Amino acid sequence: MLSKRFYIRVVIKVLVIVVTTLAMVFLFLRGSYAISFILLLCLMVQTDLLIKYVNQNNKKIIFFFNAIKNEDFTLQFPEEGNDSSFNELNTSLNRLNNGIQKIYLQNQAQEQYNKKILNQVEIGILTFNNKGHILFSNPKMEKLLNYKPLNHIKQIQLVDQGLFNIFKKIKPFERKLFQLSNERESIQLAIKSSEIISNGELLTLITVQDIKNELDKKETDSWIKLIRVLTHEIINTVTPITSISASILNYYKDEDKILPIEELDESKIRMTAKGLEVIKDQGNDLMSFVKSYRSFLNVPAPDKALINVDKLLEKVLVLMTQNKNEHVVDITITSPEDTIEIYADEKLITQVLVNLSKNAIQALNGIENAKLELITGVNENGKKYISVKDNGPGIPPDILQQIFVPFYTTKNEGTGIGLSLSKQIMHLHGGNLTVHSILHKETVFTLLFE
């Protein structure tokens, strides 16, 4: 930053001081005390001038950085009228000041831009430090909590104690659901947490989203899908009954009159018996459909206990080996070295795994080198899982969106509640059942446990 002239002048002044010192010592040793004293005074004056010369620049630089620290960019140093070395220094400081001011203004503009975006999003955002002090909260967060201004997370206790406990104990990358009720309404909140570092300080970032509308929409969509499937099944069952009943009725009526017995022949009676038999079969099918619906609605609450997953999968392997179809399927178990245990209802989870394995074996019919793999482990979020993977034809995307809808099926046989019942069982365990499929390559159903 300093010019060469400044350095040269400092060096010259130092050399003059050194020469004066040597001359003073030499004359003092020669007995010229008066001249030595005069040189000593000159030495003191030269030293003082050197210190002032250097301090003049130091004070200017310190003053400059203090102004920058206080975000004062109005400071300007004169670039003319001084010593040339100082003019060059002042020019450099002014350029640096203008550069820092430009960067500062750009950062301020970017910060304002980011704040405007955060204030417009439909998700509540809040950050707080390890002492609980809230450093930022957008208007959506204050609206969701119906409380402002938010300065400390302890204020959330005034909103709801349960919500405060979640904010206080939630771990990074964890997701929680919470129903917040007040005198106006009840809203379903999805709460997510993460960590960020700002100015060297570790902060907790909380995002809160009202998912009530999304849940209502998904619930409506689910009802529409369910009603569509129920309507399809009921119409398919009732239509033949209506048609056959009308045909039988025509055997015994002529317009609005009942035909006399003597006009009935043996063929009409036989057709009547066959028609009634079909009506009976259709009625039984409809009763089976209703019973399956009842079983779907009456899943028992899980009787949970600690289960060794390896032993559970070995049990499923034995069951599937005994019940395999005629086509050959290679069934294997893949598990980590460490034993995994889950807290679940063994009977219900076995039911889910057997159902998924049976579906996989059916899908593998006609596939060369058919393989079914039961996989267990812990994912990157620390959740334990069991996957049922096959190398079958896969599931088309349009069907993939429907497979968990109750009573939806692409098979000629079956009620279509197996997958939806399995998903419900996993929800009762606080977990989830997901599916991933690639056509002509693989299908993977995964049981996720909390």
UniProtKB/TrEMBL annotation:
InterPro entries for the chain: BphY/WalK/GraS-like (IPR050351), HATPase_C_sf (IPR036890), HATPase_dom (IPR003594), His_kinase_dom (IPR005467), PAS (IPR000014), Sig_transdc_His_kin-like_C (IPR004358)
One Pfam family linked to the record: HATPase_c
Domain PAS: 110-149
GO molecular function, one term: phosphorelay response regulator activity
Protein origin, superkingdom: Bacteria
Transmembrane domains' residue ranges: 7-27
Lineage per the UniProt record: Bacteria, Pseudomonadati, Bacteroidota, Flavobacteriia, Flavobacteriales
Catalytic activity: ATP + protein L-histidine = ADP + protein N-phospho-L-histidine
A single BP term in Gene Ontology: osmosensory signaling via phosphorelay pathway
UniProt keyword Ribonucleoprotein, yes or no: no
SUPFAM superfamilies: ATPase domain of HSP90 chaperone/DNA topoisomerase II/histidine kinase
PANTHER family: HISTIDINE KINASE, TWO-COMPONENT HISTIDINE KINASE
Protein name as annotated: histidine kinase
Record keywords, A-Z: Kinase, Membrane, Transferase, Transmembrane, Transmembrane helix
EC numbers on record: 2.7.13.3
EC primary class: transferase
Residues annotated as domain Histidine kinase: 229-450
Gene3D superfamilies tied to this protein: Histidine kinase-like ATPase, C-terminal domain, PAS domain
